[in-house]
Amino acid sequence: MEAVRVAGVSKVFNQGAVNQVDALVDIDLDVRKGEFVSLIGPSGCGKSTLLRLIADLIQPTTGEVTVNGKTAHQARLDQDYGMAFQQSGLFDWRTVERNIELPLELKGWDKPKRRARSAEMLTLVKLTEFSQHMPWQLSGGMQQRVAIARALAAHPELLLMDEPFGALDEMTREHMQAELLRICRETGTTVVFVTHSIPEAVYLADRVVVMSPRPGRITATVDVGLGRDRNELTREATEFYDRVTEVREALRGTHVGDVVAGLEDR
Amino acid sequence: MKFTARVRSSLAVILPPIVLGVVFIALWQAWVEIKDVQPFVIPKPSAIIDALREDPDLVVKASVVTGVNALVGLVLGSVIGFVAAVLTNRYRLVGDLVNPLAVTVAAVPAVVIVGVLNNMYALDSQIGRRLMVTIAVFFIVFVQVAKGLRHNNPTQMELMDSYAATPRQVLLRVRIPNTMPFLFTAIRTAAPIAVIIALVSEYFGGTQDGLGSKISGTLNGSNKALGFAYVVGGSIVGLLFFAGSSLLEYLVVPWQRRRVHG
After folding, report:
1. Domain covering B44-260 in this structure, CATH number
2. How crowded is residue B102: how many other Cβ atoms within 10 Å of its Cβ?
3. CA-based diameter of chain A, in Å?
């Protein structure tokens, strides 16, 4: 059984109106359990829309989305997935610890159980000594780690991430990517990761799904095949560069020569 | 080193207004002395201080009466304004009922309402004045909190949606805490206004024991220095209200203070 199955999905915004947008057309995507999939594409290609369809935050116009064999709606009700966004979305009036406990609180867990779990998550993201801090006392990277801890607090099998490192500086970003891979290895979590950074998509993913806009659709899939043990050396490996080039060319939609021709047309 | 730097930066903030105040009072004193202005036109600052010293109880008692009126109205108005804003946000029908009413009440001149309220209660009652303050504060708080309830962080709302949170859970855990900066800004704005309204309300009849009554009584008479002493009392009450509400804001919404001060 796939962790995520998107079958024949399309999404139209403002249907019938003058500003009708075909955000997604004919999307088919299967994500295996434990797989890390990056969605990449230029602005307006519908990658965030696709993520929100999987999360059941919006509903498809046609087609079906299933998560863990259930409808996306049921999966959301069961909190089968955790989610992290570009903004950490932490609550200023809650300590780090109580931010992580929020999803558990909504699930009706009692306090000792919540405390134990938040302590476990803080160890996972290496922020134990900051449990009593307020979010606004932390750096951007630390806030994002808290957001990831919160997304994983209920031990979901699926993690949906929308450019979670987009607002971080390059060094912090690479560190966070390594941390995310470690966390995924330790927890066996399936991840769907939206980004517009090619090296980030390749470094993290088992499979990079390339999308293009107007209308939003999947144009290519690149199997990364760099194995699971990735580290800083991976970023300097030839295979890594090969995959980055492959994704880059897929993003251009065609071969280099054609793009040059296309540029001349402008 | 750090301590002296801190003292120095505090002094840089505190000193200029103090110097300005002292200079202003000195000029006032000099002007009255040199021009030989009659004390029933404008008293000397030194005469006002003498009046305050002579019988501080007079000013303190009147200040307490007006201050308590303002405080009761401020608390009541804030509570009612907050609750009304939450209810109007949660239930559409309540909103449709309360919103036009709130705007209407705000547009009615305060003077008229005080007159009506004074007629409704006994002559020695403070209720009319307190209600007047309540109405004024209610409007300020209601508008700000309503704004705060609509002012949501989209990420937080999507997150709550992903947890399949109920509207009630969203209200209690996200919307209401998010309104706290708005609530306390509103209270800080409303606090000095509450004092002014409590004071002005006394001009329209009722018992003559508050600052407003005393000021209108003495400023028309010959003892102008005592009249100004009551004005000083009013200023102090207003400042206390402002300081108190600012402190409250500082304590309750600490994340806001960081945002404001960098």
Report:
1. 1.10.3720.10
2. 20
3. 65
**How many A×B Cβ pairs under 8 Å?**
48
Contacts of residue B29, defined as CB under 8 A and 6 or more positions apart, other chains included, come to B44, B45, B46
**Is the CB of residue A33 less than 8 Å away from at least one CB of chain B?**
no
Residues 6+ apart with CB under 8 A from A38: A193, A194, A195, A200, A201, A202, A204, A205, A207, A208, A209
Radius of gyration (C-alpha) of chain A in whole angstroms: 19
Structure tokens at B196: 């002014």
Percent of all residues in chain A with a pLDDT value above 90, rounded to a whole number = 44
Specify whether the CB–CB gap between B74 and B241 falls below 8 A.
yes
Q: What is the pLDDT of residues A57-75, one digit of tens each?
A: 999 999 999 998 899 999 9
Task: Scan for tokens 């606004």, then name that residue.
Answer: A136
Dist CA A29 CA A72 (whole Å) = 14
In the structure encoding, which two tokens stand for residue B61, read together? Answer: 């008692």
Tell me the residues of B at the A interface, defined by beta carbons under 8 Å apart: 153, 155-156, 158-159, 161-165, 169, 173-174, 177, 180, 253-255, 258-259
Reported as a single tens digit per residue, the pLDDT across B64-120 is 999 999 999 999 999 999 999 998 888 877 777 777 877 777 777 766 777 777 777
Token pair, residue A209, equals: 């799904």
DSSP B126-174: SHHHHHHHHHHHHHHHHHHHHHHHH---HHHHHHHHHTT--HHHHIIII
Distance CA B52, CA B58 (A): 8
SS3 A40: strand
User: Model ipTM?
Assistant: 0.84
